[in-house]
Design brief:
It contains 9 helices and 9 strands. By secondary structure, the protein is an alpha/beta fold. The longest helix is centred in the last third of the chain and has 19 residues, at 178-196. The protein is globular, with a radius of gyration of 17 Å. The two termini are 27 Å apart.
Length: 249
């Protein structure tokens, strides 16, 4: 949420002018783009692949579907969706960050996967109303300045009956593990970032942004408030991440 009459918003634990947040988030992902996949494997011990597989299953994607992989980064979800929708369907990989989008494009082309690519801001999606059967957003919503605006934009481009799948870090539900999780987040994660990606600050921001992101019930309420129906969520790994799903009814 923005504060001080929309003049400032949070960037991790810091307050920054609203107009600066997109630029500063962009700098984070430009810095880590080349080692993004490697760091994902290290940070999650490879479990992010299981989280993404569950998200795809919950999407209900089928042959012929039109899919928007928003904040799609290096294309993990796009790759799997493209195999399922086939030539009758279509998958668009979209990301606000040009470097991340380029990394995803090169990665998918090297695997022989052809999809469309769009540099897009989730708050102002450049697509017609009622365009997609499925919109996914994996580990991207917490970086958006105005989350309600992004959710409303997603709702607009979904077809009636279409669904959104949001895979995002959330609030750990196992109380005894919280001290250990905090130690990992604020001490070990920046150290890994410094050693592997040569950037401790970006991974410190990552840990802080997770704590500032709405928890499971708050995000569910936000989705319902903008008009998503039959909304629900699923905790994974004790709530370290959650998958929220909502329908355009």
């Amino acid at each position: 949420m923005s504060t001080n009459s929309e003049k400032t918003t949070h960037f991790g634990f810091s307050q920054v002018p609203v107009e600066e947040k997109v630029q500063r988030v962009g700098q984070v992902f430009t810095s880590v783009a080349s080692r993004y996949d490697m760091m994902n494997d290290l940070m999650s011990f490879g479990i992010h692949r299981l989280w993404k597989r569950i998200a795809i299953e919950l999407s209900g994607v089928r042959l012929g579907h039109q899919v928007l992989d928003l904040a799609g980064g290096t294309g993990d979800l796009t790759r799997q969706f493209s195999k399922i929708v086939g030539e009758q369907g279509k998958v668009i990989l979209a990301d606000i960050n040009a470097e991340m989008l380029q990394m995803g494009r090169e990665k998918l082309l090297n695997q022989g996967i052809l999809v469309d690519y769009v540099q897009a801001n989730a708050e102002m999606l450049p697509f017609a109303d009622n365009s997609f059967d499925i919109v996914t957003m994996a580990f991207g919503l917490r970086n958006v300045t105005h989350k309600e605006t992004a959710l409303a934009s997603i709702l607009r481009v979904l077809k009636p009956g279409g669904r959104v799948i949001i895979l995002e870090f959330s609030e750990l539900q196992i109380e005894p593990l919280k001290p250990l999780y905090n130690l990992y987040s604020f001490k070990i994660l920046p150290l890994l970032g410094k050693m592997i990606a040569k950037d401790a600050d970006s991974y410190r921001y990552l840990a802080e942004s997770i704590r500032m992101h709405p928890n499971q019930k708050t995000l569910l309420n936000m989705m319902q408030a903008v008009g998503f129906g039959r909304s629900d969520y699923y905790n994974l790994s004790g709530g370290i991440v959650a998958i929220h799903r909502g329908y355009k009814l």
